[in-house]
Amino acid sequence: MSDQQDRIYATAHDQVARFSFDDTVVRVFPDMIRRSVPGYPTIIDMIGVLAARYAQPDTVLYDLGCSLGAATTAMAALTRDRACPLIAVDNSEAMIRQAGTLLEEAGLRERVSLQLGDVSTMAFEPCSMAVLNFTLQFIEPARRDALIRRLAEATVPGGILVLSEKITFADAAENQLQTDLHHAFKRNNGYSDLEISQKRSALENVLIAETLDVHRERLLKAGYRHIHVWFRCFNFMSLMAVR
Ligand SMILES: C[S@@+](CC[C@H](N)C(=O)[O-])C[C@H]1O[C@@H](n2cnc3c(N)ncnc32)[C@H](O)[C@@H]1O
Ligand SMILES: O=C(O)C(=O)C[C@]1(C(=O)O)C=C[C@@H](O)C=C1
Asked: Which amino acids does the record list as binding S-adenosyl-L-methionine (predicted)?
């Protein structure tokens, strides 16, 4: 059900509706994210590698805004030797339903607690790794500080937050260049100019990107001690913040 090609914005819409993670998106999500986010497969693989290094026994591993559970699956595969419960959360019913099917097929339903919920209001248990893989950008900016602070408080010493985001740049020319290069990446992956522009309208005021400096300051203020950007391509990056 979820391996179809993304053609959602291929035909002209009179009015482009706000982007939402509904059934239509779920059906094409693996194709959409792979063709829209530069380096997405690498980022997923490396989340597994980071889990192998940072997962501490008897602490939780969180996948927050898990969509179909790609990061959960990568973390589970590389931490089989440790008693770390995995908790995967998303506030889209359609995503959670399909994630349940996929985790079942992968034989992971026992190990993973899949929860429908809002990550900006949920309570966190002591964790050694939390992943926000392209999720924070969809959370209201006014709620971001409190979420990151609560996550930092729940993270055990030596534990990490992996934060992947689309970013903006303070310098207008650089912002334009990186945005153009991202659009060239999408075009090279088969998206038309119409698809690119309609998707962009749909994401307006839904995906609210911030600069790397804003992310860095928020993380340091929340109590993370070190921040390492370990992946960047055009206007997409992933960092790890160490508690
Ligand atoms: C771009 S997708 C994340 C991709 C996923 N982490 C992965 O690696 O494949 C963003 C996800 O965040 C979820 N989301 C957005 N706001 C949320 C919130 N407040 N609480 C929980 N999930 C949220 C969306 O439903 C969507 O599934
Ligand atoms: O398609 C775009 O232009 C995006 O900004 C990418 C992005 C993301 O960063 O999450 C936006 C929504 C979809 O979930 C997939 C990818």
From this structure: 40, 65-67, 90-91, 118-119, 133, 200
As a whole number of angstroms, the distance between CA 209 and CA 38 comes to 16
Would 138 be classed as within a structural domain? yes
- CATH, residue 108: 3.40.50.150
Average pLDDT over residues 129-146: 98
Q: How many domains does the chain have?
A: 1
Residues tagged in the binding site annotation for S-adenosyl-L-methionine: 40, 65-67, 90-91, 118-119, 133, 200
Q: Compute the average pLDDT of residues 98-108.
A: 97
Residue 156 φ then ψ, to 5° = -75, 160
Is residue 33 domain-resident? yes
Residue 164 covered by a domain = yes
In this structure, the dihedral spanned by the alpha carbons of residues 17, 37, 180 and 214, taken in order and rounded to 10 degrees, is: 90
User: Does residue 132's CB lie within 6 angstroms of at least one atom of ligand 2?
Assistant: no
pTM for this prediction: 0.98
For residue 45, give Cα distances in angstroms to 56, 74, 191: 19, 6, 25
Tell me, yes or no, whether 220 lies in a domain. yes
Range of the domain at 115: 23-242
